[in-house]
User: Which sequence fits this backbone?
DNA sequence: GTCTATAGGGAGATAGAC
DNA sequence: GTCTATCTCCCTATAGAC
């Protein structure tokens, strides 16, 4: 059975298993806090074997980030393609993103952490360029949706970049907040009931803050 | 001239200079990404001298975080003490926090990063306990204000813990977002005009989302 | 309070056998 | 594709002189 057939059977390639393990470790301890020795042990490989699949630690980190961004970009494209009025599409894309972040507990932390690591990711590898392109694509898609809603008069006139940053803070941050969020909320931020509540909260926020008065 | 007199003259103790430098480094590269050699060079001391002022790297990190939290707690207490109706106090405390975060460019990143480092800060040093107490105090103060606003009927009935997390995302995250935020906004998030805009945006969000209909 | 010297270990990465 | 062995460098922390 070759590698492709193995994956069709639900098994994973070494590359995928490394990426999965690395994602969890980087989420918990950050780029510099993870040693390749520890990662190799977790996957059940020798440390040197990692270098057969990834050429360096920065490149591995970039691959982890890019895989997450690719998942998100795919979901955003899919959500937006289903059509509807701007507010309908906006609420759907936010709902779907919250579902995605809730299903992949490491994603929110890695995404926020990667924003803070300006230094580490100054490189020019293929993965990093791809990651930047995916980020730009996601942001451009949602910006276009917001501007469209304003043009057709469904949304109030708002500062689009500012709202984008706020939306990220509102949706991504709670899933990255770990024990702190757990303590504040009194329950796990990933608990299905809490995810549902956060969807409602975000939707209410958009309806109160973004809908044009005539649209209510 | 002794140490206290020196500080009155505007000079800093070694301890303060170490904390300032460490804050900048930890903000940029995270706990594990900073070496004490680099920190010592930046301060202009030998590496060993750091251990005269702090007993270990985790304790130094905790001291950095606790100093930030103490600044914030002091400002929150001061803002809330000036009185007024709940919405007036809430808008003032948010305004003041945004000013504080804008004036201390490393604070937002360190605060968010420290939330992600559940592992590193599992300790029981005096600084860590102090940091947890300060965090609890800040959160309790703002929670109490939100509940008071709801009780007197000025605020709609909202889920207080959820709104707390959202507010942190809305206010702290943009200052931590670095080059990403800069690219989205098209300007430095710390630019005075942008800080002013973010204050307005946050105030509008609170007025649209939190004020009770009768209060408009 | 700051220094030099050093202990003791772990990091990322490479070479080359199998 | 995985392994063992090894390179070189840097890490936190300590000892002890000044």
Assistant:
């Amino acid at each position: 059975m070759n590698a492709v057939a193995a994956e069709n059977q639900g098994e994973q390639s070494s590359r995928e298993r490394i990426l999965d393990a690395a994602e969890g470790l980087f989420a918990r301890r950050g780029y510099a806090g993870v040693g390749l020795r520890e990662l190799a042990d977790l996957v059940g490989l020798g440390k040197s074997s990692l270098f057969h699949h990834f050429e360096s630690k920065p490149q591995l980190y970039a691959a982890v980030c890019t895989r997450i961004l690719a998942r998100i970009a795919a979901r955003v494209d899919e959500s937006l393609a289903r059509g509807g009025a701007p507010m309908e599409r906006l609420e759907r894309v936010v709902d779907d993103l919250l579902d995605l972040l809730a299903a992949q507990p490491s994603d929110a932390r890695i995404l926020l952490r990667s924003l803070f690591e300006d230094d580490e990711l100054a490189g020019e590898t293929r993965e990093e360029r791809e990651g930047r392109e995916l980020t730009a694509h996601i942001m451009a898609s949602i910006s276009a949706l917001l501007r469209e809603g304003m043009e057709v008069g469904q949304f109030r006139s708002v500062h689009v970049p500012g709202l984008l940053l706020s939306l990220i803070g509102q949706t991504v941050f709670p899933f990255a907040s770990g024990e702190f969020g757990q303590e504040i909320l009194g329950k796990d931020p990933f608990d299905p009931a809490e995810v549902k509540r956060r969807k409602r909260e975000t939707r209410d926020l958009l309806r109160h803050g973004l809908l044009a008065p005539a649209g209510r």
Q: What stands out?
A: The longest helix of chain A spans residues 126-151.
